[in-house]
Design goal:
- The structure is a single chain.
- Strands 5-4-1-9-10-11 form a six-stranded parallel beta sheet, with helices on both faces. A three-stranded antiparallel beta sheet has the order 7-6-8. Strands 2-3 form a two-stranded antiparallel ribbon.
- The protein has nine helices and eleven strands.
- It folds into two domains: 142 residues, 3-Layer(aba) Sandwich (Rossmann fold), CATH 3.40.50.1220; 82 residues, SIR2/SIRT2 'Small Domain' (2-Layer Sandwich).
- It is α/β, with parallel strands linked by helices.
- It is globular and about 55 Å long.
- The protein binds 2'-O-acetyl adenosine-5-diphosphoribose (OAD).
- The site of 2'-O-acetyl adenosine-5-diphosphoribose has 26 residues, from helix 1.
Length: 237
């Protein structure tokens, strides 16, 4: 039997049970700032130390011993092991829980916390410690300033060409734990529909674009994601 091509999009909800708050929990506030106010190029120009502090806090939280991949991350890794390159994993998350759960080739369309970007060479460098406006890169001589390796509101997400190709060639598109409010990711389901790709939403609370999905599984990701893939894999054997 032909192996199906599956495109998976994950959002903050898949990491919620690993101890990382979703963006729109707490009304999307951090230290009384709107998330959007610390996640834009304008915010970085206006108050860089605030922006560094925000991401330093999130980078430190990610590396806490109690923050571990959960059953949903692991179940996606098992699917990838089974179907190989037929599985494309796209995440809006800047954590590394998919990789720690066993997945590889994850498309981090919004960047990653465990890296910085050199403001001169634009190189992305793996980096786990806190950094700020005094930190200098190791790629330039003398070293240049660095910024969080995050795609902010108003910037273009990464890997868009690869993502568009994968969506157009897929048999199934599955969105997990994302509120469907932030584009372009929120529009992937429409692209899938245009290519007659079967679409599935797995979420705790329905996404803003819920009506566009062919199928919905509701509940916590650590239960619903393994349940969905177990059911799906039975249809293959
Ligand atoms: P949101 O915080 O907008 O949405 C989280 C989603 O996860 C909601 O639909 C919840 O119902 C769901 N959820 C919460 N707990 C869950 C659980 N245990 N199991 C399953 N689902 C659960 O997060 P995103 O949609 O990922 O961008 O946000 C998209 C983007 O907006 C982020 O990547 C970020 C943000 O602002 C940037 O920083 C550029």
């Amino acid at each position: 039997m032909k192996q199906p091509k599956i495109v998976i999009l994950t959002g903050a909800g898949i990491s919620a049970e690993s101890g990382l708050a979703t963006f729109r929990d707490n009304n999307g506030l951090w230290e009384d700032h709107q998330i959007e106010d610390v996640a834009t190029p304008q915010a970085f120009l206006r108050d860089p130390e605030l922006v560094y502090r925000f991401y330093n806090a999130r980078r430190a939280q990610l590396q806490r011993a109690d923050v571990q991949p959960n059953a949903a991350h692991k179940s996606i890794a098992e699917l990838q092991q089974r179907l190989g390159d037929n599985v494309t994993i796209i995440t809006q998350n800047v954590d590394n829980l998919h990789e720690r759960g066993g997945s590889h080739n994850v498309l981090h369309m919004h960047g990653t916390l465990l890296s910085y970007r050199c403001l001169s060479s634009h190189q992305q460098v793996y980096y786990t410690a806190p950094y700020d406006s005094n930190t200098r890169c190791h790629c330039c001589d003398p070293g240049s300033k660095v910024r969080p390796d995050i795609v902010w509101f108003g910037e273009t997400p990464k890997y868009m060409q690869t993502i568009m190709t994968a969506l157009s060639q897929a048999d199934m598109f599955i969105a997990i734990g994302t509120s469907g409010q932030v584009y372009p990711a929120a529009g992937f389901v429409e692209i899938a529909r245009d290519s007659n790709v079967h679409s599935v939403e797995i979420n705790l609370q329905s996404a803003a674009n819920k009506d566009l999905f062919d199928e919905t599984w509701q509940g916590p990701a650590s239960e619903t994601v393994p349940a969905f893939f177990n059911t799906f894999l039975k249809t293959l054997s």
